[in-house]
Amino acid sequence: MTLRIHGDSTSGNCLKVRWTADYLKLSYDWIETSVAARQTREAVFLKLHPAGQVPLLILDDGRPLAQSNAIIAYLAEGSSLIPADAFERARMFEWMFWEQNSHEPYVAVARRLVRIDGVAISALDPILVERGRGALSRLDAGLGGRDFLVGSALSLADICLIAYTRVAGEGGLDLAPFPALRGWIARVEAAAGIGAA
Amino acid sequence: MTLRIHGDSTSGNCLKVRWTADYLKLSYDWIETSVAARQTREAVFLKLHPAGQVPLLILDDGRPLAQSNAIIAYLAEGSSLIPADAFERARMFEWMFWEQNSHEPYVAVARRLVRIDGVAISALDPILVERGRGALSRLDAGLGGRDFLVGSALSLADICLIAYTRVAGEGGLDLAPFPALRGWIARVEAAAGIGAA
């Protein structure tokens, strides 16, 4: 099976897919696709998937699959990254849906504005910053003293949520007030084999 | 098993859970919980789940599960609402994650601003309106002439995406330009046993 992954290496959503594939020792071709250079809006890319978003997985038979969290759930099916217990699996998806509606829109967006669009941290919308801090605080509390977000082992919830949390500081969202989060980031990086940011 | 569902009947995210539970003929207690009246921010509710959001499912043993799409995936496990084929299941999750990051933040928010907060449709942020229309257009194209979003039968993707699409007009997002979408709404309402909006 030769998988193709179209991704932008500066995007946490894309890195989730790379990390998951590497953890599972899957063989794949990575096709670097720049969002900033608008390569995802080019006709040749839109023909692959009309949403025009990375990451995009292409199966060996050509079928495309978008949405980072759907891709990692597909790749990891049957592996230890998805809890066997039904309720723990549901909790994993709870964190992954929460990431898309309550974490990524603030934590990832603040970082993109600063790092890609060149906005000064002091010029960020205070509401965006407040919501980003709120998401980090909620995640910090959600760990509740445990090593990983769900059960007692690494799962897709950790890989999903570490992607933008570990680089939150690049968007002015300081992790210093959250020691439990910083410990979790180091633990997940080690368990998942993720290199330095 | 006695399930409890805390939900606000004006919220599409909450109605997804009610529709799924009813379709599956599950027995449950519905605890009406008003977002507008800030009941989700009261201490008694925050003790159930620190995210302070509805819908919230409480299992018979007291364990809580938040996030509408995680809840319906949990409730529907093993049923016909989740495709047996791995790729179709992945597609279903693709649509559900897309709903949370690219549809709900515009289509549901426009409706909430108009219906709950009393904002005039003409006063809505043009960017919000444009993104809402873009999401409807993308969904319309995504149907690609098929009866349902994934495979050839009703799935959680349909129940998830119909929730705010069927009432998009309440937020000024007219469905008239999207005949395929309107046909799909009628078909999903009939298949899922959903009453008039």
Strand order of the largest sheet of chain A: 2-1-3-4
Rg over C-alpha atoms of chain A, rounded to the nearest angstrom: 17 Å
Q: Give the oligomer, counting copies of the same chain as homo and different chains as hetero.
A: homodimer
Based on helices, strands and strand pairing, what is the structural class of chain A?
A: alpha+beta
Uncertain stretches of chain A: none
Helix amount of chain A: 40-55%
Overall residue-averaged pLDDT value of chain A? 95
C-alpha end-to-end distance of chain A: 30 Å
Report the order of strands and helices of chain A: EHEHEEHHHHH
Largest interface (C-beta under 8 Å) = A-B, 32 and 32 residues
What is the tally of helical segments of chain A? 7
Shape of chain A: globular
The counted number of beta strands of chain A is 4
In what range is the share of β-strand residues of chain A?
5-15%
Largest sheet of chain A: 4 strands, mixed
What features would you highlight for this structure?
197 residues, 4-stranded mixed sheet
In words, what does this structure look like?
2 copies of one chain form a homodimer. Chain A has 197 residues and is α+β, with helices and mostly antiparallel strands. Chain A has helices at residues 12-23, 43-46, 68-75, 86-115, 126-143, 156-165, 179-192; strands at 3-7, 28-32, 56-58, 64-66. The A-B interface holds A 50-51, 59, 63, 65-71, 73-74, 77, 86-87, 89-91, 93-94, 96-98, 100-102, 104-105, 138, 141-142 and B 50-51, 59, 63, 65-71, 73-74, 77, 86-87, 89-91, 93-94, 96-98, 100-102, 104-105, 138, 141-142.
